[in-house]
Amino acid sequence: MMNRIFALCAMAMLLAGCSDGEQATTETAVDDTKVYHWRMVTTWPKNFPGMGTAVEVYADRVRKMTDGRMDIRVYGAGEIVPALEVFEAVSQGTVQMGHGASYYWKGKVPAAQFFTAVPFGFTAQEMNAWLFYGGGIELWRQLYAKYDLVPIVGGNTGVQMAGWFNREINSLEDIKGMKMRIPGMGGEVFERAGGIAVSLPGGEIFTSLQTGVIDATEWVGPYNDMSFGLHQVARYYYYPGWQEPGPALELIINKTEYDALPEDLQEILEVAGRAMNADVLSEYTARNNASLSELVDKHGIEIRRLPDDVIAEFKRIAKEVVTEVVDDDDPLTKQIYDSYSQFLENVSSYHEISERAYINTRGSGGQR
Fold it and tell me: pTM score, two decimals?
Protein backbone atom coordinates (compact mmCIF):
# COMPACT_ATOMS: atom_id res chain seq x y z
CA MET A 1 0.00 0.00 0.00
CA MET A 2 2.78 2.44 0.92
CA ASN A 3 4.57 1.66 -2.36
CA ARG A 4 1.39 2.45 -4.29
CA ILE A 5 0.97 5.76 -2.43
CA PHE A 6 4.59 6.76 -3.18
CA ALA A 7 4.10 5.83 -6.83
CA LEU A 8 0.93 7.90 -7.10
CA CYS A 9 2.64 10.91 -5.47
CA ALA A 10 5.59 10.62 -7.83
CA MET A 11 3.26 10.44 -10.82
CA ALA A 12 1.35 13.51 -9.61
CA MET A 13 4.59 15.47 -9.17
CA LEU A 14 5.78 14.42 -12.65
CA LEU A 15 2.50 15.51 -14.24
CA ALA A 16 2.61 18.81 -12.36
CA GLY A 17 6.17 19.38 -13.56
CA CYS A 18 5.19 18.65 -17.14
CA SER A 19 2.24 21.01 -16.85
CA ASP A 20 4.46 23.83 -15.49
CA GLY A 21 6.99 23.21 -18.27
CA GLU A 22 4.30 23.29 -20.93
CA GLN A 23 2.88 26.48 -19.42
CA ALA A 24 6.34 28.13 -19.37
CA THR A 25 6.94 27.09 -22.97
CA THR A 26 3.57 28.49 -23.98
CA GLU A 27 4.25 31.79 -22.17
CA THR A 28 7.65 32.08 -23.89
CA ALA A 29 6.05 31.48 -27.27
CA VAL A 30 3.50 34.20 -26.57
CA ASP A 31 6.30 36.67 -25.67
CA ASP A 32 8.22 35.75 -28.81
CA THR A 33 5.23 36.52 -31.01
CA LYS A 34 4.34 39.83 -29.41
CA VAL A 35 4.10 42.62 -32.00
CA TYR A 36 5.57 45.98 -31.05
CA HIS A 37 3.82 48.87 -32.77
CA TRP A 38 6.17 51.86 -32.75
CA ARG A 39 6.05 55.35 -34.19
CA MET A 40 9.07 57.20 -35.58
CA VAL A 41 9.11 60.97 -36.12
CA THR A 42 11.68 62.70 -38.32
CA THR A 43 13.09 66.16 -38.90
CA TRP A 44 12.62 65.70 -42.68
CA PRO A 45 9.50 66.00 -44.85
CA LYS A 46 7.71 62.70 -45.43
CA ASN A 47 9.52 60.57 -48.05
CA PHE A 48 12.08 63.30 -48.72
CA PRO A 49 14.70 61.90 -51.15
CA GLY A 50 17.60 60.26 -49.37
CA MET A 51 17.08 60.97 -45.68
CA GLY A 52 13.30 60.66 -45.74
CA THR A 53 13.15 57.52 -47.87
CA ALA A 54 15.99 55.88 -45.92
CA VAL A 55 13.90 55.67 -42.76
CA GLU A 56 11.08 54.02 -44.69
CA VAL A 57 13.56 51.42 -45.95
CA TYR A 58 14.83 51.00 -42.38
CA ALA A 59 11.33 50.38 -41.03
CA ASP A 60 10.57 47.90 -43.81
CA ARG A 61 13.86 46.09 -43.26
CA VAL A 62 13.22 45.77 -39.51
CA ARG A 63 9.71 44.49 -40.20
CA LYS A 64 11.06 41.75 -42.47
CA MET A 65 13.99 40.81 -40.20
CA THR A 66 11.65 40.42 -37.23
CA ASP A 67 8.99 38.54 -39.22
CA GLY A 68 6.52 41.29 -38.37
CA ARG A 69 7.21 41.42 -34.62
CA MET A 70 8.53 44.98 -34.94
CA ASP A 71 6.21 47.33 -36.81
CA ILE A 72 7.56 50.89 -37.12
CA ARG A 73 5.43 53.57 -38.75
CA VAL A 74 7.30 56.65 -39.96
CA TYR A 75 5.95 60.20 -39.69
CA GLY A 76 7.50 63.20 -41.42
CA ALA A 77 8.19 66.59 -39.89
CA GLY A 78 5.00 68.23 -38.66
CA GLU A 79 2.79 65.15 -38.87
CA ILE A 80 2.98 64.50 -35.11
CA VAL A 81 5.53 67.03 -33.85
CA PRO A 82 7.44 69.91 -35.48
CA ALA A 83 10.78 69.04 -37.06
CA LEU A 84 12.90 70.51 -34.29
CA GLU A 85 10.95 68.85 -31.46
CA VAL A 86 11.89 65.27 -32.34
CA PHE A 87 14.39 65.00 -29.47
CA GLU A 88 11.82 65.98 -26.82
CA ALA A 89 9.12 63.76 -28.30
CA VAL A 90 11.28 60.64 -28.08
CA SER A 91 12.85 61.58 -24.75
CA GLN A 92 9.44 62.11 -23.14
CA GLY A 93 8.03 58.90 -24.62
CA THR A 94 5.44 60.60 -26.85
CA VAL A 95 6.82 58.34 -29.60
CA GLN A 96 9.31 55.49 -29.48
CA MET A 97 11.80 56.60 -32.17
CA GLY A 98 13.13 59.59 -34.05
CA HIS A 99 15.47 60.37 -36.94
CA GLY A 100 17.40 63.60 -37.37
CA ALA A 101 20.75 65.25 -36.71
CA SER A 102 22.14 65.76 -33.22
CA TYR A 103 23.31 69.34 -33.77
CA TYR A 104 19.66 70.42 -33.83
CA TRP A 105 19.62 69.87 -30.06
CA LYS A 106 22.63 72.07 -29.26
CA GLY A 107 20.49 74.36 -27.08
CA LYS A 108 19.67 71.42 -24.82
CA VAL A 109 22.77 69.23 -25.24
CA PRO A 110 25.73 71.27 -26.58
CA ALA A 111 28.05 68.24 -26.71
CA ALA A 112 25.60 66.47 -29.05
CA GLN A 113 27.03 68.53 -31.90
CA PHE A 114 30.17 66.38 -31.93
CA PHE A 115 28.05 63.47 -33.15
CA THR A 116 26.80 65.23 -36.30
CA ALA A 117 29.43 67.61 -37.61
CA VAL A 118 32.31 69.77 -36.44
CA PRO A 119 33.57 72.49 -38.82
CA PHE A 120 36.79 71.28 -40.44
CA GLY A 121 36.35 68.00 -38.55
CA PHE A 122 35.70 64.37 -39.51
CA THR A 123 34.77 63.18 -42.98
CA ALA A 124 32.11 60.47 -43.14
CA GLN A 125 34.72 57.73 -43.21
CA GLU A 126 36.51 59.21 -40.21
CA MET A 127 33.27 59.75 -38.29
CA ASN A 128 32.30 56.10 -38.72
CA ALA A 129 35.77 55.00 -37.62
CA TRP A 130 35.57 57.11 -34.44
CA LEU A 131 32.05 55.99 -33.58
CA PHE A 132 32.55 52.28 -34.16
CA TYR A 133 36.23 51.79 -33.30
CA GLY A 134 37.29 54.89 -31.40
CA GLY A 135 34.84 54.83 -28.50
CA GLY A 136 32.51 57.46 -29.96
CA ILE A 137 29.28 55.49 -29.79
CA GLU A 138 29.86 54.62 -26.13
CA LEU A 139 30.33 58.30 -25.27
CA TRP A 140 27.26 59.21 -27.31
CA ARG A 141 25.16 56.76 -25.33
CA GLN A 142 26.46 58.03 -22.04
CA LEU A 143 25.53 61.56 -23.09
CA TYR A 144 21.99 60.62 -24.14
CA ALA A 145 21.25 58.24 -21.25
CA LYS A 146 20.27 61.11 -18.96
CA TYR A 147 17.54 61.99 -21.45
CA ASP A 148 16.26 58.40 -21.55
CA LEU A 149 17.53 57.95 -25.10
CA VAL A 150 19.60 55.39 -27.01
CA PRO A 151 21.31 56.74 -30.17
CA ILE A 152 22.05 54.60 -33.21
CA VAL A 153 23.96 55.85 -36.24
CA GLY A 154 21.43 56.45 -39.00
CA GLY A 155 23.24 57.65 -42.11
CA ASN A 156 25.82 60.12 -43.38
CA THR A 157 25.49 62.49 -46.33
CA GLY A 158 29.24 62.94 -46.89
CA VAL A 159 31.01 66.24 -47.53
CA GLN A 160 28.37 68.89 -48.10
CA MET A 161 28.39 72.09 -50.13
CA ALA A 162 29.08 75.46 -48.48
CA GLY A 163 25.67 76.62 -49.63
CA TRP A 164 23.51 78.79 -51.88
CA PHE A 165 24.01 82.55 -51.99
CA ASN A 166 22.10 85.36 -53.66
CA ARG A 167 25.24 87.45 -53.98
CA GLU A 168 28.87 86.72 -54.64
CA ILE A 169 31.34 86.15 -51.81
CA ASN A 170 34.60 87.82 -52.74
CA SER A 171 35.89 88.66 -49.27
CA LEU A 172 35.00 88.62 -45.58
CA GLU A 173 33.20 91.94 -46.05
CA ASP A 174 30.54 90.15 -48.07
CA ILE A 175 29.69 88.02 -45.02
CA LYS A 176 28.85 91.04 -42.87
CA GLY A 177 25.14 91.22 -42.10
CA MET A 178 24.26 88.30 -44.34
CA LYS A 179 21.38 86.16 -43.02
CA MET A 180 22.08 82.49 -43.63
CA ARG A 181 20.31 79.33 -42.62
CA ILE A 182 23.15 77.36 -41.04
CA PRO A 183 22.81 75.19 -37.90
CA GLY A 184 25.21 73.80 -35.30
CA MET A 185 28.74 74.98 -34.72
CA GLY A 186 28.89 76.17 -38.31
CA GLY A 187 26.20 78.72 -37.48
CA GLU A 188 28.21 80.00 -34.54
CA VAL A 189 31.29 80.38 -36.74
CA PHE A 190 29.27 82.27 -39.36
CA GLU A 191 27.93 84.66 -36.72
CA ARG A 192 31.37 85.45 -35.32
CA ALA A 193 32.56 86.17 -38.86
CA GLY A 194 29.92 88.91 -39.06
CA GLY A 195 26.94 87.05 -40.49
CA ILE A 196 23.56 86.23 -38.96
CA ALA A 197 22.86 82.52 -38.46
CA VAL A 198 19.23 81.43 -38.77
CA SER A 199 17.91 78.04 -37.64
CA LEU A 200 15.26 76.60 -39.94
CA PRO A 201 14.00 73.07 -40.66
CA GLY A 202 14.45 71.86 -44.22
CA GLY A 203 10.81 72.33 -45.17
CA GLU A 204 11.00 76.12 -44.61
CA ILE A 205 14.21 76.86 -46.52
CA PHE A 206 12.86 77.43 -50.05
CA THR A 207 10.19 79.95 -49.05
CA SER A 208 12.54 81.77 -46.68
CA LEU A 209 15.17 82.16 -49.41
CA GLN A 210 12.58 83.11 -52.01
CA THR A 211 10.99 85.83 -49.86
CA GLY A 212 14.24 87.29 -48.57
CA VAL A 213 13.90 86.11 -44.97
CA ILE A 214 17.39 84.72 -45.51
CA ASP A 215 20.09 85.69 -48.02
CA ALA A 216 21.80 82.31 -48.17
CA THR A 217 21.41 78.74 -47.01
CA GLU A 218 23.25 75.51 -46.71
CA TRP A 219 21.27 72.29 -46.80
CA VAL A 220 23.08 69.15 -47.93
CA GLY A 221 24.43 68.81 -51.47
CA PRO A 222 23.33 68.69 -55.11
CA TYR A 223 21.00 65.69 -54.71
CA ASN A 224 18.85 67.12 -51.93
CA ASP A 225 19.33 70.78 -52.82
CA MET A 226 17.92 70.25 -56.29
CA SER A 227 14.95 68.29 -54.94
CA PHE A 228 14.13 71.33 -52.77
CA GLY A 229 14.41 73.56 -55.84
CA LEU A 230 17.02 75.83 -54.26
CA HIS A 231 18.54 76.49 -57.68
CA GLN A 232 15.34 78.37 -58.54
CA VAL A 233 15.85 80.99 -55.82
CA ALA A 234 19.64 81.36 -55.61
CA ARG A 235 22.29 81.78 -58.27
CA TYR A 236 25.64 81.00 -56.70
CA TYR A 237 26.55 77.57 -55.33
CA TYR A 238 29.66 77.61 -53.15
CA TYR A 239 32.07 74.95 -51.96
CA PRO A 240 33.81 73.42 -49.95
CA GLY A 241 31.46 72.36 -47.18
CA TRP A 242 33.70 73.46 -44.31
CA GLN A 243 30.77 73.46 -41.88
CA GLU A 244 29.71 69.82 -42.41
CA PRO A 245 32.51 67.65 -43.81
CA GLY A 246 30.94 64.34 -42.82
CA PRO A 247 27.63 64.85 -41.00
CA ALA A 248 26.21 61.78 -39.27
CA LEU A 249 22.47 61.32 -38.91
CA GLU A 250 20.96 59.67 -35.86
CA LEU A 251 18.23 57.24 -34.98
CA ILE A 252 17.16 57.86 -31.40
CA ILE A 253 15.11 55.40 -29.36
CA ASN A 254 13.35 55.96 -26.08
CA LYS A 255 15.56 54.03 -23.65
CA THR A 256 12.71 52.75 -21.50
CA GLU A 257 11.06 51.26 -24.59
CA TYR A 258 14.39 49.94 -25.88
CA ASP A 259 15.25 48.21 -22.59
CA ALA A 260 11.86 46.49 -22.60
CA LEU A 261 12.55 44.79 -25.93
CA PRO A 262 13.86 41.22 -26.23
CA GLU A 263 17.58 41.12 -26.98
CA ASP A 264 17.09 39.85 -30.51
CA LEU A 265 14.93 42.85 -31.42
CA GLN A 266 17.45 45.24 -29.89
CA GLU A 267 20.17 43.67 -32.02
CA ILE A 268 18.06 43.88 -35.17
CA LEU A 269 17.43 47.59 -34.62
CA GLU A 270 21.19 48.12 -34.29
CA VAL A 271 22.19 46.02 -37.31
CA ALA A 272 19.52 47.61 -39.50
CA GLY A 273 20.88 50.99 -38.41
CA ARG A 274 24.38 50.07 -39.56
CA ALA A 275 22.99 48.94 -42.91
CA MET A 276 21.11 52.22 -43.21
CA ASN A 277 24.27 54.16 -42.37
CA ALA A 278 26.15 52.54 -45.26
CA ASP A 279 23.21 52.82 -47.66
CA VAL A 280 22.70 56.54 -47.12
CA LEU A 281 26.35 57.42 -47.70
CA SER A 282 26.47 55.29 -50.83
CA GLU A 283 23.28 56.85 -52.20
CA TYR A 284 24.47 60.41 -51.65
CA THR A 285 27.86 59.71 -53.20
CA ALA A 286 26.13 58.36 -56.31
CA ARG A 287 23.24 60.84 -56.60
CA ASN A 288 25.28 64.00 -55.98
CA ASN A 289 27.32 63.36 -59.10
CA ALA A 290 24.39 63.31 -61.50
CA SER A 291 22.58 66.15 -59.72
CA LEU A 292 25.57 68.49 -59.88
CA SER A 293 25.89 67.91 -63.62
CA GLU A 294 22.22 68.72 -64.10
CA LEU A 295 22.45 71.88 -62.00
CA VAL A 296 25.33 73.17 -64.10
CA ASP A 297 24.42 71.91 -67.59
CA LYS A 298 20.64 72.29 -67.50
CA HIS A 299 20.00 75.07 -64.98
CA GLY A 300 23.12 77.18 -65.49
CA ILE A 301 24.10 77.33 -61.83
CA GLU A 302 27.48 78.94 -61.15
CA ILE A 303 29.77 76.83 -58.97
CA ARG A 304 32.14 78.98 -56.93
CA ARG A 305 34.90 78.28 -54.43
CA LEU A 306 34.94 80.33 -51.24
CA PRO A 307 37.90 82.74 -51.18
CA ASP A 308 40.96 81.57 -49.28
CA ASP A 309 40.76 84.40 -46.75
CA VAL A 310 37.15 83.52 -45.93
CA ILE A 311 38.02 79.85 -45.41
CA ALA A 312 41.06 80.79 -43.29
CA GLU A 313 38.96 83.03 -41.04
CA PHE A 314 36.23 80.42 -40.67
CA LYS A 315 38.89 77.89 -39.70
CA ARG A 316 40.41 80.22 -37.10
CA ILE A 317 37.04 80.94 -35.53
CA ALA A 318 36.04 77.26 -35.64
CA LYS A 319 38.89 76.34 -33.30
CA GLU A 320 37.54 78.81 -30.74
CA VAL A 321 33.95 77.64 -31.11
CA VAL A 322 34.76 73.95 -30.77
CA THR A 323 36.91 74.55 -27.68
CA GLU A 324 34.21 76.65 -26.00
CA VAL A 325 31.69 73.83 -26.23
CA VAL A 326 33.69 72.07 -23.54
CA ASP A 327 32.15 72.61 -20.12
CA ASP A 328 34.75 72.44 -17.33
CA ASP A 329 31.98 71.43 -14.91
CA ASP A 330 30.94 68.49 -17.08
CA PRO A 331 33.57 65.72 -17.23
CA LEU A 332 31.67 63.83 -19.95
CA THR A 333 31.73 66.78 -22.36
CA LYS A 334 35.47 67.13 -21.79
CA GLN A 335 35.91 63.41 -22.40
CA ILE A 336 33.97 63.63 -25.68
CA TYR A 337 36.04 66.61 -26.83
CA ASP A 338 39.34 64.91 -25.93
CA SER A 339 38.33 61.67 -27.66
CA TYR A 340 37.19 63.48 -30.81
CA SER A 341 40.25 65.73 -30.96
CA GLN A 342 42.76 62.94 -30.43
CA PHE A 343 41.16 60.69 -33.01
CA LEU A 344 41.02 63.56 -35.52
CA GLU A 345 44.70 64.29 -35.03
CA ASN A 346 45.68 60.66 -35.52
CA VAL A 347 43.45 59.93 -38.50
CA SER A 348 44.45 63.19 -40.21
CA SER A 349 48.09 62.20 -40.06
CA TYR A 350 47.37 58.87 -41.68
CA HIS A 351 45.06 60.34 -44.33
CA GLU A 352 47.78 62.74 -45.45
CA ILE A 353 49.69 59.77 -46.83
CA SER A 354 46.67 57.69 -47.80
CA GLU A 355 43.34 59.33 -48.80
CA ARG A 356 44.62 62.83 -49.63
CA ALA A 357 47.83 61.58 -51.23
CA TYR A 358 45.94 59.15 -53.45
CA ILE A 359 43.25 61.62 -54.53
CA ASN A 360 45.86 64.26 -55.34
CA THR A 361 47.79 61.67 -57.34
CA ARG A 362 44.71 60.48 -59.19
CA GLY A 363 43.60 63.99 -60.09
CA SER A 364 40.12 65.01 -61.15
CA GLY A 365 38.18 62.61 -63.34
CA GLY A 366 40.28 59.55 -62.53
CA GLN A 367 41.57 57.21 -65.22
CA ARG A 368 40.02 57.51 -68.68
Answer: 0.88
